[in-house]
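hiii, so i know i said id send this last week but things got crazy w the move. better late than never?? heres the sequnce for the chain we talked about at the cafe, plus the structure i predicted for it. fair warning i was half asleep when i ran it
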Amino acid sequence: MVQSSAVGVGAPAAHRLLLVEDDEGDAFLVRELLSEIADTQEVTWARSLGEAKGALAETTFDCVLMDLGLPDASGLDALRSVLEDHADTAVLVLTGLADEHSGTDAVAAGAQDYLVKGQVDGELLVRSIRYAVERKRADEQLRRLYASELREAENTRLERGLLPHPVTDDPRLRITTRYRSGRDGVLGGDFFDVVEIADHQLFILVGDVSGHGPDEAALGVALRIAWRTLVLAGVDLDDLLPTLDRVLVGERRFDEVFATLCMLVVEPSRERGRLFLAGHPVPLMLRTLDDGGPIQLPDDLVGPALGMLPDVIWGSQMVELGRDWRVMLFSDGLVEGRIGQGSERLGVDRLLVIAADFPSYDETPLLVDHLIARARELHGGELSDDVAVLVVECCDT
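okay and structure toks below
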């Protein structure tokens, strides 16, 4: 039976302790030693590993005082069992006089420290508990810092593949890109690219792999690189998406993974282009306010996402661009954020209104930053999904 008690007098509980000890005499001695000091210690006593794990499941403890000789587990197996499920809890091992070497083995296995029964007074015990707790906190902070640095380094490597530098020599073109990670800064599978080939056709791409995390990001990198390779190799336009579909099916880990994609192929004249849509949001035409302001391009031929159906042939439609134009491709993370606490989504229609009302509508970098910031503001914080935005503008004057 697990028993709880408070020992000591004066201040509120300095630490919440779990004493795992099957010997009643030793358990009594530990509590007596704790009572010698002025700080109050809240102690829960468990006689077995099973009782200890039950207590740990119900209560958060600052430190576990643990004997390694228990009726239902012994030695390092008992310690590992606790650390496996409660890695953020400090553990202080209690050993007998004849078994001091087990203490050093326990520290090597993850305990913060060990004490030898019969060689401990109250002051040493409390000080050891305090040091164990602080050492565990320091270890956790260091672990979080290392994990953060590792994630940042991984994101940097993946960003190089997801977000390449555009390849174009046309002085009439200006390109603005933005990428913002959602969900605690972990990269997802959004990607974009811009490539101008030898005959001066301009290929513009934004894609989004379903899911979130390094696997999705790696698949996004594979698709983006495959797309650029196919474009530079001169593969027929109508074969691009079917080939990418085969790449996705071959590279994905699970059959449920799919990718949406939007591709605009602009003719050398820069006055019109072919639009391909595979389950992706339709781009915006950022017309001047004198010409009517921003609109969404036609969505008559939206095909299924990549990886959804076998043997799909994606259609395309011609889009008249004119001489001076701005086209904005984006991933759905920009428009799927919620409005406040309700279920209503931002949506493209509201995005168009936000864009048209922005005083610096004609300044593309400011406009894109404003759209992302406003989407986050309406959502009430960081957006749940990644946001990729790619604006290509052609100025013929």
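btw The CA atoms of residues 328 and 391 lie 4 Å apart. thought thatd interest u
miss u guys!!
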